[in-house]
Amino acid sequence: MTTELARKPAAPDTGTAPTAKPQAAKPPPKAVPSPQAPETWVEVVHDVPALLAHRQAWDDLARHAIEPNPFYESWMLPQAVEMFGAGHTFRGVLIFRRGAKPKDPPLLTGLLPLESRRGYGRLPVTVLSLWKHLYCMLCTPLVRKGHATETLNVLLDWMATDPLGASLLELPHINGEGPFPQALIEVLNERGSMHTVVDSFGRAFLKPAADAETYLAAASTCHNRQELRRQKRRLSEQGTVEVRVLESAAELEQWTEWFLDLEARGWKGQEQTALKFDRSNGEYFRSIVREGFARKQVFLLGVFLNGRPIAMKCNFLAGEGSFAMKIAFDEEFARFSPGVQLEVENILQVHQRPELKWMDSCAIPKHFMINRLWQDRRVIQKLLISTGSRTGDLTVGLLPFVRSLRRCFRRSPRKAATRQASGSKPIENQK
What we know:
Elements: E1 32-33, E2 40-45, H1 48-52, H2 55-63, H3 77-84, E3 89-97, E4 107-120, E5 123-130, E6 142-143, H4 148-161, E7 168-175, H5 179-191, E8 195-206, H6 212-219, H7 222-236, E9 241-245, H8 252-264, H9 267-270, H10 279-294, E10 298-305, E11 308-318, E12 321-329, H11 338-351, E13 358-360, H12 368-373, E14 376-386, H13 390-409, H14 413-421
Parallel strand pairs: 5-7, 12-13
Antiparallel strand pairs: 1-2, 2-3, 3-4, 4-5, 4-6, 7-14, 8-13, 8-14, 9-10, 10-11, 11-12
């Protein structure tokens, strides 16, 4: 097992008392303890086997995380690293604290998949960033409830003494509202750490109303609902229409292939960006659906016509929330709006599951259909933090000023159109 440390904490994920002496639960001598909290330490691993050695503790952390994130859970992240990790310097940062009792195994309180890279924009600085691949829709790290402040302080202490000397910590695609960002900002302010929001946007978010009818009445106009009913009637004239939810593991493989085929027949197939057209992408989807369904964390539903799927949706479940990973529909039936029909059914399903308090659309910011039907928004941010070095402080401190300067000198579209209409040459073309 390749790790940055010489040794690991004893029995990190067995869930049983270690056979060694009571002091075996203490951090190993060559771990990286926090100067502010000697009962805690950091371990860094560099490959999937080393990460999976902590799977039991990892799963327990995910169940008790301050904010759920299935994309960083043990059934999804390892597959992503294996499929998409080539060319990336992966570092799994695990934060432990000593068990409550002498014989208790260490408690995993934080897990951050990071990648190291050289350069931020045009600046020659070393950056550690939360790892994000094409199908990772959220990068909020897993941090245990009740230990957020301590865990974040330990992380920042480790960053300040990291042998690789990263000047910046980049947190892309994290939830900008909720307990994690609140705890993070409090810790950063208490420490006086320089930080800035680099990017921010609103993503469609679903919070159930008193019932589905109330929600849909608020989300759409009377005309829209009438048109949808008309399209549903017209679709039923083509044959037997059913809404199905996958419940049997015996049908999982068939549903997965149906989904991949359906996506490939749409616009993504025309642009050769469908999952099926890339072997790694297809295998990744199959593996996470298989693993997630076995853990009851995958929720597949579809609209079927005469037994044939014409629209399908794959959702992931985590804690009290869910994530709408992907949707696909057959464009042969576009005149019946099967994708919209399925979204309405999805809203009905969410309202029928009292354990679900919300659903993240995972959609792009200006997705017309989703933004129209989903009433709420979740703030997604990219945060940049200095690790305390002069280079990091200078970069984070100057970044807002540089961005403001660029906006000031950027020519507005209206001014450009006025200049061209008047017959003058654009500035960059003038000799």
